Description:
The strands form 4 sheets. This protein has a 7-stranded mixed sheet with strand order 4-10-9-8-7-5-6, with helices on both faces. Strands 11-12-15-14 form a 4-stranded antiparallel sheet, covered by helices on one side. A two-stranded parallel ribbon has the order 1-13. Helix content is about 45%, strand content about 10%.
Amino acid sequence: MAEATLRETDAEIAKLIDDENRREHETMRLIASENYASAAVMAATGSCLTNKYSEGYAHKRYYEGQQVIDQVEELAIARLKKLFGATAAAGGEEDLHVNVQPYSGSPANLAVYMAFCKPGDVIMGLGLPAGGHLTHGHSVSITGKFFKSVPYGVRREDHRIDMDEVRKLAKEHQPKLLWAGTTAYPRTLDFKAFRAIADEVGAIFAADIAHISGLVVAGEHPSPFGIADVVTSTTHKTFRGPRGGMIFCKKMHAAAIDKAVFPGLQGGPHNHTTAGIAVAAKEAALPSFKPYAKAIVENAKELAQALVEKGFAVTTGGTDNHLMLIDVTSKGIAGKPAAQALDRAGIVANYNSVPFDPRKPFDPSGIRIGTPAVTSRGMGKSEMRTLAGWIDRVVSNASNAALIEKIAGEVRELCSGFPAPGIRV
Ligand code: DSN
């Protein structure tokens, strides 16, 4: 007898998944850290590989029955080495070790601390209010509680990372670990300058490329490979894989990183995710991936320019990557109500602090907008111009329910012409 389907077993969850498929189809996904994983990636993550425990690494496991899992993990590693090794300034694939077991970006970053630092050591990263990540030493994160965090920021005049300040702080505080990585920073990172500073003070240099790993693969952002000691990333943002994490390091650090991930921080790896990462790596090696990544950046530049023309205060005046940060207070509204009104119109972004924000993080001045997901749907510059018009009308008329409903209809109509990868309605 055929096994019961999800719909037969659990109609409520099946319906909620239908609802989410519809929501994802009918709305513009502008959250800079989100994307659409392909049907192939989702098939791998929804497979029987979820059933298997595999503590350890290929051919050195603590459970038997790894005939298939070892091959899955080795394939994912080989594909990632080739893909990212090809972007390296020096060393290439030969000097690259890859760990695909971190459950996501935060555990990947914790493994870096575990591999190289002891509690109380000084670490440096871009402060959260300036566009950094929680795990780069923010005070509420374990990384700000267990380590002495000395955050660097952006310049008040142009909101760009001030490498002179990074150098000055590094010389004064002698960090053990120096992070270059961002979650809300619209400009490129100068990995070579970070490397030089790390060398001056004898720090480990870690690049967190979670947001930009797809851009790095495609040459749309400078690569930290061959420059940083260790590179971490999530796998689901511009890289367009499943929710997961990965760590790359020079071979001399392989044992420290592997031990930190398992048994230091985690138990069994999520093998279904590893398979999804392998599929995403294969997709990112296709000829179509480079034009996709190029279009992400072109769309972001076009959208930022269109918003500037409509009088929005776009941080740094534009973008070099996939995202932009907009201070909406000049339009007479704060970030949170602006993001909520946009959501009602089917334009999904997140509210976000802007540099030197006088408002609190839960009610900040800005919104963050990214183009990876809409670019995955095949939208281009003309749709970005349309989008800028909608954003302007919604943000300027956030309490006009009739107008917002009308725009939501227009958004739905546009989206119906651009099916999202992996979404079934
Ligand atoms: N939550 C991710 C983001 O939105 O940027 C970072 O972890």
